[in-house]
Amino acid sequence: MNIWIRKIQKAVMLLTVFASVISVPAVSSAAISTCATANYSLIYINGIWTTDARPAALELQRAIGATYNGQTVKVSIAYNKTHGKTADLADVFRQKLSEYPGVAAELLIKALTSGISTGLPDPLVDFIRSYNIGKIRETGSVAYNDDDLRDIVGFIRGSITENQKILLVPHSQGNMYANSAYSALTSGADAIPSASIKIFGIASPASYVAGSGDYITSTNDLVINGLRAASGLPVLPANFTVSITSDDLSGHGITEIYLNPNREGRAEIIARIKNVLSSLLEPGGQGGQGPITVTLSWGAQPDVDLHVFEPDGTHVYYLNKQGTVGMLDLDITNSFGPEHYFTSCDTLQQGSYRVGVNYFYGISPEVATVTITTPQGSVTRNVQLNVALGTSGNSSPVMVGTVVVTRNSNGNYDFQII
User: Are 159 and 166 in contact, with CB atoms under 8 Å apart?
Assistant: First the structure.
């Protein structure tokens, strides 16, 4: 048997033991506001092993407040999904076998952050060092191309379409995604204005903040200190001291340490975030905001159309822009998009909102990118479109996803994207 496979099997067994003692945040019943609109959008990007990012996002909203400079501030979540406590790390080893000689550096960070200074078994640490760190040193690359990044980029792009000034607030490994998302969004033919998006990182394992953004890392953050010492890779230096609490002896937690009202970091974070907000400019997007939004973009071919079927059967598209619940407020016919649909809180219905696309006009295959966003999550999906169908495709668009809206026992709306 290949020696790396034997090492992987051993590492995964060790991970199973280690994962049993890792704590993850309990699911919170609190919810981000369904109908809040925003001039400033603070987008929180969580680290690994986070089953519910809402407590941190809600604490961030409380810290910053609902308005700044007379404009509304809304905190939302671009969720860096956990795939299971063991799987988040085990994927590192499985994927490395097929990646050689390339490397996705977030996998190294997933293996190190939140663990290396708090009790990973020595054989596992040796494996991480000799394999993952070795490959990064060989290739010198820090590249991202995974489904989590795609969803995060799609969520941010949708917020830009809705003319929100964007501040990314990542924590821990979320900083790696924020840097890559910033690069993807501010480059290429459909780049967004760099003056409309900034980053303020918290407890960053990265070596830089994209766009010359700001950050805070405590001198007492044992996780980042451990990563810096053990990996031999460049990590941003600590630049502030937050005292340790018995709630989190690692000094790394966002709610326990950095946003804790009884710790020094909270006031510093508030001041620095407000300083960054002052520098942001509107991106010029023309899309409306609502509890359900759908944003479509595509490549250089002239025209791809967005279609939404509302719960009562109303078909919203370019020939019927006003639906019973929502409307198609952007219909672009000259490459890249975006097209955009949003619902109103006043007319929101329970039931299924089915989302599709039709390749209306073009001469080459095209890829449509659709981001569906609700207060409880966002999904971005890519659809391969081979042949333009014109009006014949209006009645049978390629289906991309469905939003199911229900009311819970508290009378609040729940949203599920399938």
Answer: yes
Summarised one tens digit per residue, pLDDT across range 363-405 is: 999 999 999 999 887 889 999 999 999 999 999 999 999 999 9
- Listed in sequence order, the residues at least 6 apart from 323 whose beta carbon sits closer than 8 Å to its beta carbon are 308, 310, 314, 316
Per domain, the residue ranges of the chain are 3-82+145-277, 293-417
Phi, psi torsion values for 76, nearest 5 degrees: -130, 175
- The span from the first CA to the last CA of the chain, in angstroms, equals 40
d(CA 305, CA 303): 6
Query: Angle, to 10 degrees, between the axis of helix 54-64 and the axis of helix 265-277?
Result: 70
CA–CA dist 47, 53 (Å, integer) = 9
- In this prediction the pTM is 0.75
User: Checking DSSP bridges between strand 293-297 and strand 303-309, what pairing results, if any?
Assistant: unpaired
Tell how far CA 215 is from the center of its chain.
18
Task: Calculate the alpha carbon distances from 227 to 109, 174, 218 in Å.
Answer: 8, 15, 13
DSSP characters over 33-83? -SS---SEEEEEE--SS-S--HHHHHHHHHHH-SEETTEEEEEEE------
Per the prediction, the chain carries an average pLDDT of 80
Fold of 3-82+145-277: Rossmann fold (3.40.50)
